[in-house]
Amino acid sequence: MNRFVLHHYPQSPFAEKGRLLLGFKGFEWDSVTIPVVMPKPDLTALTGGYRRTPVLQCGADIYCDTAMIARRLERESAVPALFPAGREAAAAALAQFADQVLFQHAVALNFQPDSLAARFANVPQDVVRAFIDDRKSLFGGGNGNRLDVGVALSQWPTLLGRIETQLGHGDAYLLGDRPCIADLAHYHPLWFVANNVHVAATLAPYPRVRAWMARIAAIGHGKPRPIESGAAVEIARDATPEVPAANNFVGANGFTAGQEISIAATDYGVDPVVGTLVWHDAEEIVLRREDPRAGVVHVHFPRMGFRLTAI
Ligand SMILES: N[C@@H](CCC(=O)N[C@@H](CS)C(=O)NCC(=O)O)C(=O)O
Fold this sequence. Notes:
By secondary structure, the chain is an alpha/beta fold. Helices cover about 40% and strands about 20% of the residues.
C-alpha cells in the first residue's frame, strides 16, 4: 500500500487535527509542508483547486477536509475507533459542532488585532499583509462568516464551561473513557487559542479542560517523515486510484456516477473542483480528474458542507 501523505503547515489548527488523527491510528506517514497562502501549485495539482489545509494523499487518492480524512483513516484501521460503535452519530455530530462553532470562536479570538500582532511578532510586514489579504479572499463567495469577537468572547464561557462541567464526572474524554473524533475536533481550536500568548489566558479558568488537552496532546502525531511537495505529485502520477467497491447509493438530488460535476465547499475556500463523479455514498463523494502533472487522480470529499453542481 502507498504511504499516507499529509499536506499541511505547522500553525494550522485543522492540520493539527490531521496530525493527531494519524497519531491516533499510530501511523508512519509522509509530511509535505504547503504554503500558508495561495498559490499552492503542487497541492492544487493534486486536488484540482481545493486549497484548504490539510489534505491527505494515499497514492493517486486525494482526501479533502479532515471529516473525510478521519473516515479514510478509520477505514484503514478500525481500532482505536474514531467513531465508536453505538456512538457514531454522537461522535460525528459533536465533531461537526466543534469544527464549525468552537473553531469560529477560536478564530475570532486569534484574529483580534493584538492576537495577530502576537502571532506575527517576528514576521515581515509584507508577509503579514499577504496573509490578511489571502484570508479575506478565502471567505469570498461562501456562506461562512467571521464571528464578531465581542460575541465570541461573550459565548466563550458557555462553550468552555459546558466541557469543564462534563469532564467533572469521571470520564477522561468527551464520550467516555476513550478518545474519539469528538475529542480531536474539540482539541484543535483550543490548541489554536493555547498557542497565542494574547488569548491563552482564556483557558485558565478551566483546569479539567486543560488536563484533557494534555491527554489529547499526548496522543502525538505518529511517525512523520518530511518529503517535498513535488515528490508527492510524482507519487500520485506513478499510482493508480483505488477502485471503490460498487454500491447502489441513490442520492436525493439525482446525481449519478459518470456525470460531469463540480464540487465546492459551501462556507469558505469555495474554489470548485471539476471532474467525473465516480462514486458516492451517504458520507463521501469521489471525483475522477486528470491533471497534466499528477495524472489520473480520485479526489474524495465529505458530503456534508459541499455543494455539487452539474456541468
Ligand atoms: N472543514 C475543513 C476546514 C479546514 C480549514 O479551515 N483549514 C484552514 C486552516 S486551519 C484553511 O484552510 N485556511 C486557509 C489555507 O490554509 O489556505 C477541514 O475539516 O479540513
